[in-house]
Amino acid sequence: MRWLAVGEAAIPEGTGWLSEQEAARAATMRFTKRRTEYRLRRLAGKRAVASVLGRPVNPTSLAGIEVLNRRGGAPYVVVDGEHAQVDVSLTDRAGWAVCLVGPEGELTGGTLGVDLEAVEPRSRGFVTDYLTAYEQEYVRSQGELGSEGWDVAANLLWSAKESALKVLRVGLRADTRSVEVTLGDYVRPDGWSPLVVHAGPSERFPGWWRRDGVFLLTLASREVTDPPALLAGGDDLATGEPTHSWMANPLAD
Ligand SMILES: CC(C)(COP(=O)(O)OP(=O)(O)OC[C@H]1O[C@@H](n2cnc3c(N)ncnc32)[C@H](O)[C@@H]1OP(=O)(O)O)[C@@H](O)C(=O)NCCC(=O)NCCS
Fold this sequence. Notes:
Elements: E1 2-7, H1 20-27, H2 32-53, H3 59-63, E2 65-69, E3 75-79, E4 82-83, E5 86-93, E6 96-103, E7 112-118, H4 124-130, H5 133-142, H6 148-167, E8 179-183, E9 193-199, E10 203-212, E11 215-221, E12 229-230
Parallel strand pairs: 1-12
Antiparallel strand pairs: 1-6, 2-3, 3-4, 5-6, 7-11, 8-9, 9-10, 10-11
Helix pairs in contact: 5-6
The structure holds coenzyme A.
């Protein structure tokens, strides 16, 4: 597994780096926020796949790497018109996007999921509505409502759930309390810490999480793996400033 982050400032002008299908999809999005996030996630996906395949990152080459969506929303990749033998997962938050890439699974269904969150305030209601009793206890053990410990814990657990629900390709159609997160108790020198997301009595998704500046990044997968390696060709998430550029111009042109 490998990963890459990009910031909004790197989004190329125009649509020449998108495929026809991607450009048409972006054009249906009237709100700048949605359109920018879609383009940003495309950039992360294309750059990551280009880096894995050793392809150039000029607009024509990027347009040949299509990051399309299955009916339920899960992404898949087509390179020069052919189905690519990779599984990808995409996420964005506050002007930054991450793509996780791995080999395609042999069974039907997703093999990996990634989710990016910022450490931001989470209410008591958020914690009680979306987290299991065990997870709520963990958040309370990390600090009072409104403290950094509370907010890191609440966002981290939420993110790990989203990662697992992306592996399952259901996303937030599922009840977030149907999966439960257990965090490991060590941090590797490369910044990754282990986690496991339990889905029912028999299914479990091992994964990893890291804190990069104001961001929390989680991933989940079908199999136990080492943490993903960072691909060349991305931006540094650890120094990334959250941006909300869409606010200046909420309706896309
Ligand atoms: C998956 C989901 C939780 C992610 O939402 P989010 O946290 O706001 O957004 P993120 O930036 O972290 O992730 C967005 C990416 O998740 C991926 N995604 C969307 N649905 C997915 C699914 N069912 N399974 C796996 N990945 C999914 C997509 O790649 C999407 O980016 P893209 O549309 O540009 O390809 C949410 O989109 C969801 O619940 N989707 C399913 C239900 C739904 O409303 N579907 C409508 C689309 S058909």
